[in-house]
């Protein structure tokens, strides 16, 4: 599980032993392929359980005389055949918004009247402010716009990473993001958890989170390519992942603590939103470690690809000067660390 990585420039600050993540990248590719295929199968055969935001339906706004008990209203509707009703406060604790999916063969007026009768039998202390019907055409437009939002985000990321790093890194990052999105959607397909606009927002947030994690690793890979004199691309990448491991673990854990609290305590409205982010955090952390880096390595990224001169017009002498400057700066930092360590050791022995 561990491998020794040669790093003559940064040996004073890096441990000799490193976890060999890249040794298992073949198994990680197989695992990812299985999860992606299972997700696609779920999306094809079961599909997503779209919420009213996408399917259309009836929207009813009520104003209560006193603070409304959302859970009581929700249970009352479920007990009378409105299992798919979405109930939430709207503006204040007295205002309630109810959304109901369309029912085949039943018009919206009949559905809303029946719902009002059910609620009045339980508590008549409210008035109806408005009833609106959202047609399926609006839902189709939202579905199309949501898919386009994800596609545009991925294209923008591809261009950004290609400009900031190298094209092979951008391919790795986008493949990792597609991997994360497909698996998260697959979880919703297999569990049939409701997919609404809040979940779509969570999917976009997962893309941003996973990309941030990947960029941090890639940035360290680039830095190591420029400062580590020995070591293959696999070893340099492995070193970068180990250097960022503590940061990745702390970021993921602190984010998960908040999301788990939202999942269990945030209520039904935010439940699926938190679920999507929890799945995305796990999958995104995994993909930034294995998928993105493995794709870049498989495409043959090397030190020469990242040692481009700062200006296109720079000649061979300028490139050599730049490399020499970077090397001397790293050597100076190493000597300073060694001197500080020796001073601390001498002070400890003097005591």
Query: Strands across the major sheet, in which order?
Result: 5-6-4-7
The tally of helices reads 12
Provide the CATH top-level class of the largest domain. Answer: Mainly Alpha
Ranges where pLDDT stays below 50 over 5 or more residues in a row are 1-16
Q: What's the helical proportion of residues?
A: 55-70%
Question: What is the global morphology?
Answer: elongated
Structural class: alpha+beta
Subcellular location: Cell membrane
GO molecular function, one term: protein-transporting ATPase activity
Subunit structure: Forms a complex with SecD. Part of the essential Sec protein translocation apparatus which comprises SecA, SecYEG and auxiliary proteins SecDF-YajC and YidC.
Transmembrane segments: 27-45, 146-163, 170-191, 197-218, 249-267, 273-301
Highlighted features:
351 residues; alpha+beta; Multidrug efflux transporter AcrB transmembrane fold; Alpha-Beta Plaits; 3 domains; 4-stranded antiparallel beta sheet; 12 helices; 8 strands; 12% strand
């Amino acid at each position: 599980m561990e491998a020794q990585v040669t790093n003559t420039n940064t040996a004073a600050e890096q441990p000799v032993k490193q976890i060999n993540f890249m040794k298992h990248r073949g198994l990680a590719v197989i695992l990812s392929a299985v999860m992606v295929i299972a997700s696609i199968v779920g999306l094809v055969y079961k599909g997503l359980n779209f919420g009213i935001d996408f399917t259309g339906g009836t929207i009813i706004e009520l104003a209560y005389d006193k603070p409304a008990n959302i859970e009581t209203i929700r249970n009352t509707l479920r007990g009378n055949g409105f299992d798919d009703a979405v109930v939430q406060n709207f503006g204040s604790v007295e205002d309630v918004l109810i959304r109901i999916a369309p029912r085949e063969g039943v018009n919206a007026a009949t559905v809303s009247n029946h719902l009002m009768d059910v609620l009045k039998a339980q508590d008549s202390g409210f008035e109806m402010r408005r009833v609106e019907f959202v047609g399926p055409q609006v839902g189709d437009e939202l579905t199309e716009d949501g898919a386009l939002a994800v596609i545009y985000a991925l294209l923008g990321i591809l261009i950004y990473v290609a400009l900031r790093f190298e094209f092979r890194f951008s391919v790795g990052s986008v493949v990792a993001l597609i991997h994360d999105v497909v698996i998260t959607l697959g979880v919703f397909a297999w569990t049939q958890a409701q997919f609404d606009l809040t979940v779509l927002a969570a999917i976009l947030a997962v893309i941003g989170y996973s990309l941030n994690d990947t960029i941090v690793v890639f940035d360290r890979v680039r830095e190591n390519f420029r400062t580590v004199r020995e070591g293959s691309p696999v070893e340099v990448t492995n070193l970068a992942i180990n250097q960022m491991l503590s940061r990745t673990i702390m970021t993921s854990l602190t984010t998960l603590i908040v999301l788990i609290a939202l999942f269990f305590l945030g209520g039904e409205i935010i439940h699926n939103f938190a679920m999507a982010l929890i799945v995305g955090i796990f999958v995104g952390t995994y993909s930034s470690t294995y998928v993105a880096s493995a794709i870049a390595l498989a495409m043959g990224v090397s030190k020469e690809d990242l040692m481009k001169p700062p200006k296109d017009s720079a000649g061979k002498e300028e490139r050599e000067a730049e490399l020499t400057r970077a090397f001397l700066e790293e050597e100076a930092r190493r000597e300073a660390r060694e001197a500080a360590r020796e001073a601390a050791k001498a002070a400890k022995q003097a005591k």
